[in-house]
Amino acid sequence: MSSKLLSHLGAGLLLSALIWLGAAGTAAAGPLKPSGFGELDCNGQSTLQTSVNRRLNCTDIRGFSTWTPNTWNGRFYDNGVYIGHDEPDMTFLSTAQGSGNNVTWTETLPRDPSAAPTVQHPGSDVSHWFELTAAPWFSMAMCDPNSYPQSSCTPLSDSNAPTCTPLQTSGCYAGGGSAFMELQLYPPGFPPFADSTSCNDSQWCAALTIDSLECTTGFATCNPGCEEPVNFAWIQTNGVPTGPP
User: Taking the domains of the chain in order of start, what are their residue ranges?
Assistant: First the structure.
């Protein structure tokens, strides 16, 4: 798909994806035995299976200023491996009722220079987008009682907001269980996506991801086989998924 086409269809595609996810969520849940290969843990540290992709753009988890096997003085550890990274973001807050689930963004995707990237003259070299960022993205929180802090979540309600902080994890409300949904946009130039960040050398592509976190309040306990499970699906212009959910 072209950059121009994707920039125009992005909001509609996201809305369609949200509707599909909502419908899929009505199916009865049951036990599922994981296969030997998959993405039970976005960080590739599952004790139950081998990750098929160790280079996913996982949600950056902020640790608490306590000491447990899962958080060491503000840093979060997945099965003993520190997985933090720099991930700057811009947050938009609104007090308008319903604004949390009724929002439209318009983004014009950048075009790379026609010249190939160079590295000989720092400060004046030719740079392509994949060298600057792995994936620009839009995100929002969504109810998930099975995700951190593994508590009930009331849809469309401010009552889910936590009162606990990284410095206070007891005598406070940890908040409603929530997952983190992202619409991720991958720049061209650094394929293949299986072990890198681009779909091909000339086109942008996009995916919808939902990251959960199977830990209790203050990261007191976490599920070592499935700490940060992720649902990943490519966004298609024809509405036909590339594979099963």
Answer: 1-22+38-60+133-245
Distance between CA atoms of 196 and 5, rounded to whole angstroms? 23
Q: Dihedrals φ, ψ of 196, to 5°? A: -150, -145
Tokens describing residue 213: 């976190």
pLDDT in tens, 123-158: 899 999 988 888 888 988 899 999 999 999 998 888
* Mean per-residue pLDDT over the chain, rounded: 80
Q: What are phi and psi of 220, to 5 degrees?
A: -60, -40
Q: d(Cα 130, Cα 62) in Å, to the nearest integer?
A: 25
CA-based end-to-end distance of the chain: 22
- Distance from C-alpha of 235 to C-alpha of 241, rounded to nearest angstrom: 7
pTM reported for the whole predicted model: 0.75
Q: Which residues contact 169 (CB under 8 A, 6 or more apart)?
A: 64, 66, 217, 218
pLDDT tens by residue, 218-234: 888 999 998 998 888 89
Tokens of 145: 């009682």
Token pair for 174: 């940890």
**Closest to 52 in 3D by CA, of 224, 235, 230:** 230
- Please check whether residue 129 is in contact with residue 187, taking contact to mean a CB–CB distance below 8 angstroms: yes
